[in-house]
Specification:
Blueprint (H helix, E strand, L loop, with lengths): L1 H17 L3 H9 L4 H38 L5 H10 L3 H29 L4 H10 L1
Helix pairs in contact: 1-3, 3-4, 3-5, 4-5
Length: 134
C-alpha cells in the first residue's frame, strides 16, 4: 500500500518545489532570509497545492493497494471476500464489496480534501469553489 501511494506523492511534491518562482527566491535572498525561513515562508506554501494533489491521488490508490495486498496474502478482509464471492459466483456480493471499496476510497479522498481546505484556504482552487457554491 505504501509503495503505490508513495510515488504520486513524491512526484507531485518535487513538481511543486520546482515550480517556485525564482524571482521571489532571489528577492528573499536579498532581504537576508535564511534557508529555513525561505523554505517555510516561500517554498512550502507554494508547493502545498501540488503536495495535496499527490496526497489525494495517493489516498485514492491506497484503497486499491490494500485490496490487491489482500488478494495475494490474506485470509480475511474485503479483498479476500471479493475473491471468495467471485469464486462462488455470488455477483450481488461482489458488487456490494466494489461499492464499499469505492466509498472507502472516496471517503479517504475527501478527508484529504478537507485537510487541504484547512491547510491552504488561500489557494485559488478553493476560492473559485467558494464563489460557485454561493
Amino acid at each position: 500500500m505504501f509503495l503505490l501511494s508513495f510515488f504520486p506523492i513524491v512526484v507531485a511534491s518535487i513538481a511543486g518545489f520546482k515550480s517556485v518562482d525564482p524571482e521571489v527566491m532571489d528577492f528573499a535572498r536579498t532581504t537576508g532570509a535564511g534557508a529555513w525561513k525561505m523554505f517555510f515562508k516561500i517554498r512550502l506554501p507554494q508547493a502545498l497545492p501540488d503536495i495535496f494533489t499527490g496526497l489525494k491521488v495517493g489516498a485514492a490508490l491506497s484503497a486499491t493497494a490494500a485490496v490487491v495486498a489482500e488478494f495475494v496474502a490474506s485470509d480475511r478482509g474485503l479483498g479476500y471476500l471479493l475473491l471468495q464471492y467471485n469464486g462462488n459466483l455470488d455477483t450481488p456480493m461482489v458488487f456490494a464489496i466494489i461499492v464499499l471499496l469505492s466509498l472507502i476510497g472516496l471517503a479517504v479522498y475527501y478527508v484529504v480534501e478537507v485537510i487541504e481546505r484547512i491547510a491552504i484556504p488561500w489557494h485559488v482552487s478553493h476560492q473559485a469553489a467558494d464563489v460557485t457554491m454561493t
